[in-house]
Amino acid sequence: MRYPSAIVDPMMLVVVVPTYNERGHLARLAEHVLSLALVNVDVQLLIVDDASPDGTGRLADELARQHPLQIRVVHRAGKQGLGSAYIDGADCALAMGADLVAQMDADLSHDPAVLATMVNAIRGADVVIGSRYVAGGGVDADWPRHRKLLSWLANRVVVPALLMLPLTDATSGYRLWRRDALIRIAPAVNVRSSGYGFQVEMAYLAYHVGCKIREVPIYFRARELGQSKMDVWASLAAVGEILSIRRTHRETRLPPQSSS
What is the mean pLDDT of residues 81-91? Predict the structure, then answer.
């Protein structure tokens, strides 16, 4: 696909939010995102809904009608996974001309206000990751114990030992990308990965094409409504995906880092 040239001034930031049964959170999330006042940055929200049976998609369409210049909705035929939702969302954002593309959970576990910090940080980087484990970061005391354990295992044991990534939180889903970084790694992204595995794979690929990655502290809140999609089995499956990343990309040929 041929992407149009990105807008230089002001910058366009597209916040990609995958949804599945997030009706209870979506309106508040949209309000927070659209109320961000970022200097010289045009903020837009892109909702990628997987045919949520609770009506999230219909609410997203209503929000888009209320904010036609700021909200766009992508409807998918069914529940196809977080990884493919982000890939479809990023592809759409780049086609819109986005200079910056953010990834954010729909359940308000990621504070939209931190985007201001991330935008400042990316002025000297290609990717910014919101980290729960860098100094100043943290997680909600109500976060399920099994998720704390698996997150610790992935970030403190599996990722450093097998992938040697110099990151404290490679599984974080709160990120900000420059368009060039996404375009360079796009051909190698494995759409089968999801959840933690997808996030680690994206970080791994970015690191290996020479992207400069920064981490900023975030406080990860437990969701207020509904149930997390990352249950014990999904989390264990994602750890398995992490174990396969190095093998999957052993023969991958990635574009060299730009000299510009």
Answer: 92
Find the helix packing angle between 145-152 and 232-248, rounded to 10°.
Answer: 10
In this structure, what are the phi and psi dihedrals at residue 139, rounded to the nearest 5 degrees? -130, 155
Q: Rounded CA gap, 126 and 141, in Å?
A: 32
Domain residue spans of the chain: 11-248
Q: Which residues contact 144 (CB under 8 A, 6 or more apart)?
A: 228
pTM > 0.90? no
Tell me the CATH number for domain 11-248.
3.90.550.10
121-134 pLDDT, tens digit per residue, is 999 999 999 999 99
d(CA 36, CA 176): 15
Residue 161 has pLDDT above 50, yes or no: yes
Q: How many Cβ atoms are within 10 Å of 162's Cβ, its own excluded?
A: 16
Pairing of strands 213-217, 127-131: parallel
Q: Which residue has the higher pLDDT, 193 or 39?
A: 39
169 HSE (CA, 13 A, CB side): 24
Whether residue 165 has pLDDT greater than 70: yes
With beta carbons less than 8 A apart as the criterion, state whether 55 and 122 touch: no
State how beta strands 213-217 and 138-139 pair: unpaired
Say if CB 72 and CB 15 are below 8 A apart.
no
What is each CA distance from 254 to 99, 111, 222, 245, in whole angstroms?
21, 33, 37, 15
